[in-house]
Amino acid sequence: MQVKDAVAVVTGAAGGIGAALAQALIDGGAHVVVSDLDEERLTATAERLGAVAVAGDAASDEVIAAMVAAAEEHFGPVDLFFANAGVGDGSGLAADDDQWQLALDVNLMAHVRAARRLVPGWVERGSGYFVSTASAAGLLTQIGSATYSVSKHGAVGFAEWLAVSYGDEGVGVSCLCPMGVDTDMLRSGMTSAGGEGGKVAAAAVTGAGEVLAPHDVAEQVLRAVEEGTFLITPHTGVHEFLRRKVDDHDRWIRGMQRYQRQLKENS
């Protein structure tokens, strides 16, 4: 999928990876609709970038419909959808049902609902592209956060299913699985609602590898879209960690247990 002249929607775009994706898309000649729950920050970002803003919950069918309608009204049919909005906290077994529902809604079901709305039209047209922002946690796990780990595994699984099911019908799919990226979620999102678990979760991410700038990640994502690459891992270490997990699951778990102990001792 070529970015130039494409119509794109990016969720979770008030800042972080989402804003960087929107900037990279516009720089590449795309027409962009941005969305986020934080209306004030979203409006400022949209004005800075020259994008169309639709504020609201990325997991809401009504808001997804409004994003698509805004894109069609201003630019034409949506070619690219970036399901980038995400939530995370430091919850373990103490997470209540509301916390689980929020994580599953935003990190997984938002992707499902957007695909449900867009993919049939893409199949009819013979082209379209869906980009899922998951996480290395969706390939490995997230020490300190059960809700984040499980919901991101779901996002990876859905992206894989989407690629297998519709790849022969003109629908491209990419799945972004970074470790640490310099975003609000990493700086404060995990810790604000998770107490000690959030601190351990953030430390696990920052201690596992380099924390990348959002614009560097965005450049890799757009390159993957243009090349039709499914799995995007900006941190090269993710492939090695995943290989170790697949080669010997028990050994990998023991290693993660040791890493968790170290993190707790140093927190």
Automatic annotation (TrEMBL):
Keywords: Oxidoreductase. GO terms for molecular function: oxidoreductase activity. It holds the Pfam family adh_short. Belongs to the short-chain dehydrogenases/reductases (SDR) family. This is NAD(P)-dependent dehydrogenase (Short-subunit alcohol dehydrogenase family). It comes from Janibacter cremeus.
